[in-house]
């Protein structure tokens, strides 16, 4: 199912079982306890030869987040690469945006940008965890879920 608007997202979110939400929101505490959200692969080995693998190796909580986003169907279908407002929000320092003031559709659009953007810019999702934005978005979604504000 392609989620393209707030109404279709609301209908979808209401079908997600509570135990799945509990697992997803459990990542908040795990992320808060995580010191490093990824490590850069590559460089040189001890003998000076260059390693073949380059890029980021995300921490388990980042990988779990990405897997759950797909499993729960939290990605929305829109032209995320042209969404300048979303890019601006994600470029801000953590705490600069009141994510609780955003609706669930916008929060899922931001999740879409983080996950899809990581495919084109390796380490982008790791950075969103490192700067606290991913956790703030999950906290805002959790608040909406608890208050039934889809």
Helix and strand sequence: HHEEHHHHH
Q: Count the DSSP helices.
A: 7
Distance between the termini: 18 Å
What structural class results from the helix and strand content?
mainly alpha
Instruction: Indicate the radius of gyration in whole angstroms.
Output: 16 Å
Q: What fraction strand? A: 5-15%
General shape: globular
Q: pLDDT average, as an integer?
A: 92
DSSP strand tally: 2
Question: Main β-sheet: number of strands, strand sense, barrel status?
Answer: 2 strands, antiparallel
* Strand adjacency order, main sheet: 1-2
Q: Would you identify the regions where 5 or more consecutive residues have pLDDT less than 50?
A: none
Helix content: 55-70%
Tell me what the structure shows:
This protein has 150 residues and is mostly helical. It has helices at 6-13, 18-33, 60-72, 84-91, 104-120, 124-130, 133-147, and strands at 38-41, 55-58. The protein has a two-stranded antiparallel ribbon. The longest helix has 17 residues, at 104-120.
Q: What labels would you give this structure?
A:
two-stranded antiparallel sheet; globular; single chain; 150 residues
Brief digest:
The mean pLDDT is 92. This protein has helices at residues 6-13, 18-33, 60-72, 84-91, 104-120, 124-130, 133-147, and strands at 38-41, 55-58.
Layout: helices, strands, pairs:
Elements: H1 6-13, H2 18-33, E1 38-41, E2 55-58, H3 60-72, H4 84-91, H5 104-120, H6 124-130, H7 133-147
Antiparallel strand pairs: 1-2
Helix pairs in contact: 2-3, 2-7, 4-5, 5-6, 5-7
């Amino acid at each position: 199912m392609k989620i393209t608007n707030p109404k279709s997202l609301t209908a979808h979110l209401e079908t997600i079982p509570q135990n799945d939400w509990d697992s997803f929101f459990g990542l908040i505490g795990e992320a808060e306890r995580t010191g490093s959200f990824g490590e850069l692969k590559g460089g040189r080995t001890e003998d000076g030869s260059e390693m073949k693998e380059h890029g980021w190796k995300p921490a388990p909580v980042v990988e779990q987040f990405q897997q759950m986003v797909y499993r729960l169907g939290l990605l929305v279908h829109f032209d995320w690469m042209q969404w300048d407002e979303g890019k601006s929000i994600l470029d801000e320092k953590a705490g600069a945006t009141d994510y609780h003031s955003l609706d669930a559709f916008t929060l899922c659009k931001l999740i879409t940008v983080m996950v899809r953007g990581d495919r084109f810019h390796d380490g982008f999702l790791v950075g969103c965890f490192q700067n606290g934005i991913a956790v703030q978005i999950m906290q805002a979604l959790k608040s909406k879920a608890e208050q039934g504000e889809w």
